[in-house]
């Protein structure tokens, strides 16, 4: 006995025949098999009923007046819902040509009259089962193909599709002898935002970004970007636009057949503006800016790999140059990347060959004028290039991981200098050591610092670690524990370059920190209203949180005057002293700046 799907869902069969008796007989046979029958008396009616009733199978007589069964079969096949429906054709002629005609018209099965009524029901059941099996297979295949080519979160094409899109569009540009552009889009600080709003809102945020990208680049709009009518005339084709999500917070846009750089710029600007609008996510309205790197075909690369690499390089430059902007790739960027690679090798030699040195810069107490602390700053005496600024090599060391070894070296040196000062009987000052984000993220940081305290003989209360705002605000929840453990050693913690990152006030309150270090960029901006406002805000914040504040990069009397007027606790900058050799530290510790401070404050 055949068990059929009709136990779950009664199959509906459309029976088309101009002979009423045949229809009736067929109905009886099929209803006996628990199927539902709908009827049509000719081709036109068949199509009507087909659309209205959405049957699971069509039983179709060929010889009918008006529209023949073959014609009706073809029409049904042309309809979207008729593509995969089983159609059984019944005809009186069993010659080869008629059978071929039937299959060509789209029939699934072919029966010749006279019909064996006793077998009809079973035949139809078999056809339905085969069709169900086929359809479910096809659905699975569609799903697999979808998963292979689309990102399930945003429904955008994925990395694999992107690679194919890019190759296809480059070939097309090559054929049309036109330009194309690859835009690499990366969201700024996404990880941090994701951590702070929670991952499910983070997902919604990515979906929203994908939506905005799609809206902004819809085909009709895309044509408007190239609104310059001459551009259309030159290329003679419409620009094609393809969007993809490569994973995480990385998206790509490929524009093909673009005539002018200004057109690409327009697109980049629109993406920038649209993505930077606040996103509303239940009680959060984060602003997420993108950094965009752009590489052009053919000038920046003729093959996908080169183009991708160069767009990526340009994207990193956009990040390095302040984020929330777009940058076109240029040769110099590559030169810079090569330069970095060279620096990485040279830095390795530098650590081995003792080319690194430490300097110390004093920090002055604004009420007593005493030098109360010394910040250790690394220097690189390059054999050919002379002094290389840490601003140049620390970021390289950070990105290559060499910063860990470099940090070890710094601690070793500081330790040595502490012993030297100890022999001179100098002990009443704090020593500040910079800890880079990567160092901070090392699992064994706590042990390292404990080891350093033991080696140097420095009383824990005399050590202050300077951590950057971004290092501690990333994964803030985890870092609270980490900072507490460090504090447990008895040392002080300062937040360096404060105000340049993205601090969450609620975390700041919970972090066991002692000092906020106002970034020197705000001190040099003091003459502008914005600069002063930020400094006022940081000072007010520090008062509320009961933290020490230090201003770094003080160069002028008027800067000093302002900071004194606002009650800044500690002062550091060329105005007092430049970073100096460890041998000059003892002398500096004897210096008192109170007179200078009072005379400036008096003005
Ligand atoms: P930072 O920790 O914010 O250090 C302050 C920087 O400002 C130092 O630059 C210092 O020389 C400079 N500076 C001090 N007073 C003035 C002034 O009045 N005017 C101006 N224009 N600049 C002033 P430096 O020594 O070039 O260091 C730059 C950055 O490199 C440091 O910024 C720090 O982030 C990093 N760095 C330096 N030494 C180390 C180190 O040993 N370890 C780590 N991880 N990073 C270091
Ligand atoms: Mg510092
Ligand atoms: Mg700083």
Summarize the structure.
This protein is α/β, with parallel strands linked by helices.
Characterization of this structure:
By secondary structure, the protein is α/β, with parallel strands linked by helices. The protein folds into three domains: 12-148, 3-Layer(aba) Sandwich (Rossmann fold); 159-329, Alpha-Beta Plaits (2-Layer Sandwich), CATH 3.30.70.270; 359-601, EAL domain (TIM Barrel, Alpha-Beta Barrel), CATH 3.20.20.450. Helix 15 (402-423) runs parallel beside helix 17 (445-456). It is elongated, with a radius of gyration of 37 Å. Residues 1-7 and 220-237 have low confidence and may be disordered. Ligand C2E binds next to strand 12, helix 14, helix 15 and strand 16.
Descriptive terms for the model:
5-stranded parallel sheet; elongated; TIM Barrel; 3 domains; 25 helices; 19 strands; Rossmann fold; 8-stranded mixed beta barrel; alpha/beta; Alpha-Beta Plaits
Q: What ligands does this structure carry?
A: ligand C2E, magnesium ion
Q: Biggest β-sheet: count, sense, barrel?
A: 8 strands, mixed, barrel
CATH arch. level architecture of the largest domain: Alpha-Beta Barrel
CATH class of the largest domain: Alpha Beta
